[in-house]
Design brief:
The protein contains 7 helices and 8 strands. It has 204 residues and is α+β, with helices and mostly antiparallel strands. A hairpin with a 5-residue loop joins strand 3 and strand 4. The structure holds iron/sulfur cluster (SF4) (2 copies).
């Protein structure tokens, strides 16, 4: 029938309009910013840096390898590698980013930095509410703003964060087992090494 589609559309609009007074799921808008829609787990916006433990400076997983900086298509990441090493969250001496900036006004949320990071140090955030009247400085995020805890990562992407934790735990266990085996082999070699002979023909 001519116009049937229009009538169906108007009927659906009317059902939503009047239904919204009695049923919450018929209300298709929310009163932002007082109300917000729940984020789905796959949502992503801009990157953040993950840290382990309580101290964000010590716990940053980033070792300033600069792979993400090189691979970022619009070149909105700036990293300066530290000159020294500091113990990371598990006590291993590591380089760290003396400077780690992301220009959020340029970032296109492509997630390539996340894909290329070998250390699971950078992940995508779901935060989208970033208004500022400082067009440049307010959108240049430095590492203190980028650093967010692993607990936060679990809150926003629980499945992904759980998988990352398992992979990191397996990697650390393998590294610990390798170090232990090497230490045992070195101790065994030292125990079976011949006693040093006296020099200069001295007799006991
Ligand atoms: S999400 Fe894409 S554009 Fe944004 S910092 Fe990462 S690589 Fe660069
Ligand atoms: S975030 Fe990952 S890829 Fe980027 S510098 Fe740090 S460790 Fe390297």
């Amino acid at each position: 029938m001519f116009g049937e589609g229009i009538l169906k559309g108007m009927a659906e609009t009317a059902r939503n309009f009047f239904g919204s007074y009695v049923k919450k799921d018929r209300l298709t808008t929310v009163q932002y910013p007082e109300e917000r829609l729940p984020q789905i787990e796959a949502a992503r916006n801009f990157p953040f840096l993950v840290y382990d433990g309580q101290d964000w400076q010590q716990g940053l997983r980033c070792v300033a390898c600069q792979i993400c900086e090189k691979e970022c298509p619009p070149k909105c990441i700036l990293i300066q590698k530290s000159a020294d090493k500091k113990p990371d969250a598990v006590g291993k001496p590591q380089f760290y980013p003396a400077v780690f900036n992301i220009d959020i006004s340029v970032c296109m949320s492509c997630q390539i930095c996340v894909e290329v990071c070998p250390f699971d140090a950078i992940k995508m955030d779901v935060e989208y509410d970033l208004p500022t009247d400082d067009r440049f400085g307010g959108l240049l995020f430095q590492k203190d703003r980028l650093a967010k805890s692993n607990e936060y990562y679990h809150q926003i992407h629980p499945t992904e964060a759980g998988a990352v934790d398992s992979a990191l735990a397996a990697e650390r266990a393998a590294a610990a087992a390798k170090a232990k085996a090497a230490a045992e082999a070195a101790a065994a070699k030292a125990a079976t090494a011949p006693e040093p002979q006296p020099v200069g023909g001295e007799k006991k």
